Amino acid sequence: MRCFRLATTWIVSLPGIALMAVAQPLLARTAPVGNYAQTIAVGKCRPHLVSYPTISAAVAAAVPNALVLVCPGTYPEQVTITTPLTLEGIKDATGTYPIITVPNGNWPNGLTQLSVLHTPLYGAPTVNISNLVIDGSNSGVTCGSGVGLTGLAYEDADGALENLEVRNQNPGGCGNGVGLSGGNIARNTVNVKECNIHDFDNTGIGVISTRAQPFSVNVNSSFVGSESATAQAGINYFLVSGGTVSQNVIVVPTAQDGLRLETYYDGQIEGNTIIGANIGIEVDSDSSATITKNNLSNNGTGISLSPYSGYYTVSWNTITLSGTAAINLNNCPAQSETALVEYNTIFGAPVSIANVSSGDTLKQNIIEDAGAPTTCP
């Protein structure tokens, strides 16, 4: 699989598949927007500002709600942010954004390249990050029990991630592009928009929360892709989480799932393009979800729902060339789960809609060159 970015368009090429998916352009926002308590710089491209040689030094010196502008260049460092602020890169004359790389040295016990953390002083800080590249090449991480490499992590924090490229977190099966975890005190919200997350070898975007507080994560207009044989999921939500996942392109030809939603997920999945996964969209365990207007192609199963409780609306999706079933309701024997499956277009599958129980409703689906729906044995 190869991905190419031309102007405002993603062109994704897989064996036997050609896909062109419209995405948003990468936009530069180098001029400060809004009111900030302080504006400082990393590097010398803004001579009128107080400047620091590293990102770590700048964020350590920043007052709450400051704007930290990062000049073009490569920054081999591990960055931790605990203060509410905005971190924004400035592109150079060639259109290249600042790059955070792995610091010199060996990190066999794992590494997170850029972390945003909750602290007693500021609680859950709001940190907005944009216009940066985070590259995990040559990390020296040795995968093992509890060891991993993560490009960007939020832990019990809020904010927006926009126009980021997170790449090459692939040390051997434990590499994650973005990890987002909610806390126990307050409901956290993180918005991911127009990001390019690729060449990970575990999970592209991982979202996890606790049962104490829901965690709202919205992922929109982004690309998530990997060729790694060890990749587990493009996007994975786990435990008391919700939000909108919309207009993304997910290409994980060897992964278990393109988009996995586990345990008490409540949100909307709309307008995504997912190709090549074992399961395109999997919703599992006591969840409620609306799955609509997605384009799923060349997946083993297009959409798979849980055999537990929950209510699902699956509508207006286009599902083509599924290896086993376009939609699997997995509701045998009948559980308290119910699904409304309507106005979907299904083409090319051994079974169009599998394991339908008495509580499910099928309505005006278009089925061509696919097996008829099957009921529970």
Structural summary, described in words:
This protein has 1 helix and 38 strands. By secondary structure, it is mostly beta strands. It has a single domain, classed as Pectate Lyase C-like. Strand 2 and strand 3 (17-22) form a beta hairpin. Mean pLDDT is 87; it is low at 1-33.
Radius of gyration: 21 Å
Number of strands: 38
Mean pLDDT: 87
| Major sheet summary line | 24 strands, parallel
- Note the gap between the termini: 39 Å
CATH architectural name: 3 Solenoid
Structural class: mainly beta
Number of helices: 1
Strand content is over 45%
Write the SSE topology.
Layout: E1 2-6, E2 9-14, E3 17-22, E4 39-42, E5 51-52, H1 55-61, E6 66-70, E7 74-76, E8 79-81, E9 85-89, E10 99-101, E11 111-117, E12 127-135, E13 149-155, E14 159-167, E15 175-181, E16 188-193, E17 196-198, E18 203-208, E19 215-220, E20 223-225, E21 233-238, E22 241-246, E23 249-251, E24 257-262, E25 266-270, E26 273-275, E27 279-284, E28 287-292, E29 295-297, E30 301-304, E31 310-315, E32 318-320, E33 325-328, E34 338-342, E35 345-349, E36 351-354, E37 361-363, E38 366-370
Parallel strand pairs: 4-5, 4-6, 6-9, 7-10, 8-11, 9-12, 10-12, 11-13, 12-14, 13-15, 14-16, 14-17, 15-18, 16-19, 17-20, 18-21, 19-22, 20-23, 21-24, 22-25, 23-26, 24-27, 25-28, 26-29, 27-30, 28-31, 29-32, 30-33, 31-34, 32-35, 33-36, 34-37, 35-38
Antiparallel strand pairs: 1-2, 2-3
